[in-house]
Specification:
nine-stranded antiparallel β-sheet; carbohydrate binding; mainly beta; Immunoglobulin-like; 950 residues
Length: 950
């Protein structure tokens, strides 16, 4: 017992020693945008100016009701009449420090303040004015403090810098610009003799080196580094002497067989670094790091730990609508998880270094990071930039997630700063230039922005590695997932294709406190995201998820001789597919009359995960299907990564459309069919349904269900491409059905309306097209303002484009009408209006009742009403005539740049080119105008089965 007590006392003494020698932090502000502290505040201009009041810190003062708003490109909007809001914010805050701090070194640290910041403590200057908004800076205020008493902090923050190069680099930019102390402020307390910071170089082979920067060394001592693994086991240590007035000590060690850091295996270690005098710990700091080796092999590719990797990346602004660039750990975590959910592995911190918590999450969850010095098309001066590079690199150097330092954006490169990064980064990461003009490759990597598919083909065959740091601009519903499949396949298969970074993750919509709290995206400038301001997922989100899935499955349909074998390609860089898990299910879809959407899981199981090596190796998944598997509607396959996160879920129909409609479309009934004619109309009646065909143009002139109001569906079929002129209508009986057949001249050959005793109506038609067309098929009209919603069996829940067919799966989906224009308020997703793919049946719910359309033929697209893909004077791409279309082909969508005549949609790749048509198209559509009578299994509702896997 005595030994146990002695051991416990020793452990407690050591713990107290650690606590007493560790750096102490005292926050003067809040820690994030959710946890703030009120400071005294005076704004010199704009709203609520000219008086002392209070403000929450950290925050932008615009979001607290002060000053005026500016988007960085306002000078383009307002021209000669433009002027930046140039107010200053005067901050005051009283705080106390304990008397016990006397004899220690005390620093005041600002993690981010826009843009010039002057600091006083108790009326005396803390140091030179800091210039630059996104960088952590500090002042030694040891001699300015009153210990054991109240102290006064005063900070004057100028929105516009007195250094024009800082304004050019940060504020004349394509993003919102704000003012204020928007990241935390705190006191950092260390012993007189202390460790200031460290810089680590930890290689994949276990080699460890560290520069330990010490300050104010007055006695000879030692620096001790102890390396601990994730299980808190000491795996290596190193110790070196420190002499008086030393400023840096370099330690080296070796860890045997380290767990390497990659985005797929984010293995982290911890190093505790202590400054000792006479064996007594004086100061201790801790850093997390990872063992990995980054190489640029010029003319070849980017290598991590000896394996070539390709970037599946996105650009990210630090953003939240209510608080701008003041965020919190939950927002950071949300963004990292969203990026990884899209099966991405990389993020570019555009166009400034982020809050450090985001980088911690990239380390621990696994993302490759491009950390960027601000400089949006114009660069910092050397004098200003040298300080900011130092601040950025010293803060961020030990993050294993950071792969590159980016020295500015699109011409915002001061070449004199290129060699500064290595002065503070012991691992000497590569420096790149994120540029928008060809011929600016740096360090063997060409990062040119917004090349089209065909120019990209030339670049990946050229001398340099090609890694665009911006491509497929995602304004509105364009870009991002649209055309990405062609670009990704090109990069994946090209030796010097290194992947790239989509523009951008988030629509930068700010809550305008001066405009009744509307969310403002500044017109066409800021709705550039794959997700909305509050992270609402757009259609491209799931398309990217499928395209970038490391488990690559190309199978589109189940072949007639399908035996459960599914070819698969492993596009992980480091993970064997035997580390993943796979589940299958046979399902039956819900019917139009059912209360619920989705499907019922009838049988399910888990596959044996095959051993398929990473980096493109191919093999097969094998499902042991039951003998009766063809009796079910669909087969579902789900893939999960080693951490049990869903990679993607694929659904293939087992039955053809005719089989899926067997219990829905019913032709037979005891009712009779009739046909009547007058000078202008042919009327077909079956059961309770009547349809009227115009003899003049062959179009549907009216429909009615005796049990409900007339439906305003009609004015079709109209051929959406080509010409069609009706030349006559003939009528006849076919079995127990009545038929009206319309003859045409032009591209439409014929159309035949047939009504059955059940009231179901069949439309058969044929047309011929030869040439390039945006769309092909037929249209009708229905008043959009009458529509309440839609329910369908087909691909969903999002709309599709010719070059964005990924990210949607077969199921029964439902959507309530909304008028969302992607990129604008309200951010309601999925959008209701658009093109929907592989429709088997669709039921529209309207104020006039319900009506249903179905097709026994595959490949049907349904277009729902008028909508904008990209903002412009007219809908872009161009829409078909009518507003309710049944199509065999749909158009691709471009990007913001595709509206420029020199950069057209077809240049984005094969899937973005117009439809090349040569031949005839035949299709059958079934309609029921009203609520269809149930048939077969549809007569009763079946409660869905619960299955945790799906």
């Amino acid at each position: 017992m005595r030994k146990l007590l002695m051991a416990a006392s020793a452990a407690l003494l050591m713990a107290n020693s650690f606590a007493q020698t560790a750096t102490q932090i005292k926050y003067l502000s809040g820690t994030d945008n959710k946890n703030t502290v009120a400071w005294d505040f005076y704004c010199t201009g704009g709203r609520n100016s000219g008086k002392w009041t209070t403000i929450q810190v950290p925050a932008h003062w615009e979001q607290q009701g002060f000053g005026a708003y500016n988007y960085g490109r306002d000078y383009k909007t307002y021209g000669k009449n433009f002027r930046f809001a140039d107010e200053q914010g005067l901050y005051k805050h009283k705080f106390t420090v304990p008397a016990a701090w006397k004899g220690k070194e005390v620093f005041i640290v600002f993690e981010g303040s826009m843009t010039d910041t002057e600091v006083k403590i108790n009326g005396k200057s803390a140091g030179d004015k800091h210039q630059g908004a996104f960088y952590e800076f500090k002042y030694n205020i040891t001699d300015l403090l009153k210990y054991g008493q109240e102290n006064l902090l005063e900070a004057t923050v100028s929105k516009m810098s007195s250094d024009n190069s800082v304004n050019n680099a940060e504020r004349l930019a394509d993003y919102w610009v704000f003012g204020g102390i928007f990241r935390p402020v705190y006191l950092k307390v260390v012993p007189k003799q202390h460790i200031d910071h460290t810089s680590i170089d930890a290689k994949a082979d276990g080699s460890f080196a560290m520069n330990v920067f010490v300050d104010n060394i007055l006695q000879k001592g030692e620096v001790l580094a102890e390396i601990w693994d994730a299980a808190n086991k000491l795996v290596a240590s190193a110790k070196l002497p420190v002499n008086v007035k030393d400023s840096v000590v370099k330690l080296t060690a070796k860890v045997a067989n380290p767990l390497q850091w990659t985005a797929e295996t984010p293995n982290l270690y911890k190093v505790n670094v202590s400054f000792l005098i006479g064996g007594i710990r004086v100061h201790r700091v801790s850093d997390k790091f990872g063992f990995r080796t980054i190489e640029i092999r010029k003319g070849d590719g980017i290598y991590l730990n000896g394996t070539k990797i390709k970037m599946k990346g996105v650009n990210r602004h630090v953003w939240w609508p209510e608080t701008g660039r003041a965020v919190n750990p939950e927002i950071d975590l949300m963004d990292v998880k969203l990026i990884k959910e899209m099966n991405m592995n990389a993020v570019r911190c555009s166009h400034y270094p982020p809050d450090k918590n985001f980088l911690n999450l990239c380390d621990s969850l696994g993302l490759y990071v491009l950390d960027e010095l601000a400089g949006w098309q114009k660069a910092y001066s050397t004098k200003a930039g040298e300080k900011l590079v130092k601040e950025m690199v010293i803060r961020d150097a030990n993050h294993p997630s950071i792969f590159f330092w980016s020295n500015g954006n699109e011409g915002g490169h001061n070449f004199a700063l290129d060699d500064d990064y290595g002065q503070y980064d012991l691992s000497n990461r590569p420096v790149i230039h994120a540029h928008h003009r060809p011929g600016n490759a740096f360090n063997g990597i060409d990062c040119n922005h917004y090349e089209d598919y065909y120019s990209t083909q030339k670049l990946v065959a050229d001398t340099n590695i090609y890694m665009p740091t911006e491509f497929l601009h995602s304004q509105d519903d364009g870009g991002a997932g649209a055309a990405l499949n062609d670009f990704w396949e090109l990069h994946w298969n090209a030796k010097k294709g290194a992947g790239g970074f989509l523009w951008a993750l988030v629509d930068e919509g700010i809550v305008r406190t001066d405009l009744n709290n509307i969310i403002d995206v500044n017109g066409l400038n800021a709705p550039d995201g794959i997700v909305g301001p509050h992270r609402e997922k757009e259609g491209s989100f799931n398309a990217i998820r499928e395209i970038y899935a490391p488990v690559k499955i190309w199978m589109k349909d189940l072949a007639s001789n399908f035996n459960g074998t599914i070819p698969v390609e492993n596009r992980y860089h480091f993970t064997n597919l035997n580390q993943c898990t796979f589940h299958w299910a046979l399902v039956n879809y819900r019917k139009p009359g059912d209360l619920f959407t989705g499907y019922d899981v009838m049988k399910s199981g888990q596959l044996t995960s095959p051993s398929i090596a990473p980096c493109g190796e191919k093999g097969n998944l094998q499902i042991n299907l039951p003998d009766d598997w063809k009796g079910y509607d669909a087969l579902v396959l789900s893939a999960f990564d080693p951490a049990k996160n869903l990679i993607y879920k694929w659904t293939w129909n087992v039955k053809d459309n005719a089989g899926l409609l067997n219990d829905i479309v019913s032709m037979k009934d005891t009712a009779a069919t009739t046909i009547t004619e007058n000078d202008s109309l042919v009327t077909l009646r079956g059961g309770e349904v009547s349809i009227m065909i115009s003899k003049k143009d062959g179009q549907l002139a009216g429909v009615r269900n005796a049990a409900s109001d007339p439906l305003s569906f009609g004015k079709g079929p109209v051929l959406v491409s080509g010409t069609a002129t009706a030349t006559g209508v003939k009528t006849y009986k076919e079995g127990d059905a009545q038929v009206a057949e319309v003859a045409y001249t032009g591209n439409m050959k014929w159309a035949k309306w047939k009504i059955y005793p059940s009231g179901w109506t069949q439309l058969d038609y044929e047309y011929e097209l030869n040439g390039n067309y945006q769309f092909a098929g037929i249209s009708f009209n229905y008043p959009e303002n009458f529509v309440l919603g839609a329910k369908w069996l087909g691909k969903g829940p999002y709309r599709v484009w010719k070059n964005r067919l990924q990210g949607v799966t077969n199921n029964v989906w439902q959507n309530v009408y909304n008028n969302t224009q992607t990129g604008s308020a309200p951010w309601i997703f999925p959008e209701f209006k658009g093109y929907y793919g592989d429709i088997t049946w669709m039921e529209l719910n309207t104020v006039e009742g319900k009506f249903c359309v179905a097709s026994p033929d595959t490949g049907l697209f349904v277009r729902l009403f008028d909508f904008y893909g990209l903002s412009g004077v007219r809908p872009h791409p161009e829409l078909p005539v009518g507003n309710l279309s049944f199509l065999d082909r749909i158009p691709p969508i471009g990007t913001k740049l595709a509206l420029n005549i020199s950069y057209n949609t077809s240049a984005l790749g094969p899937q973005s080119e117009p439809n090349k048509l040569n031949g005839t198209f035949k299709r059958t559509l079934y309609f029921y105008f009203g609520l269809p009578k149930p048939s077969g299994e549809n007569k009763q509702f079946v409660m869905p089965k619960v299955n945790d896997l799906f």
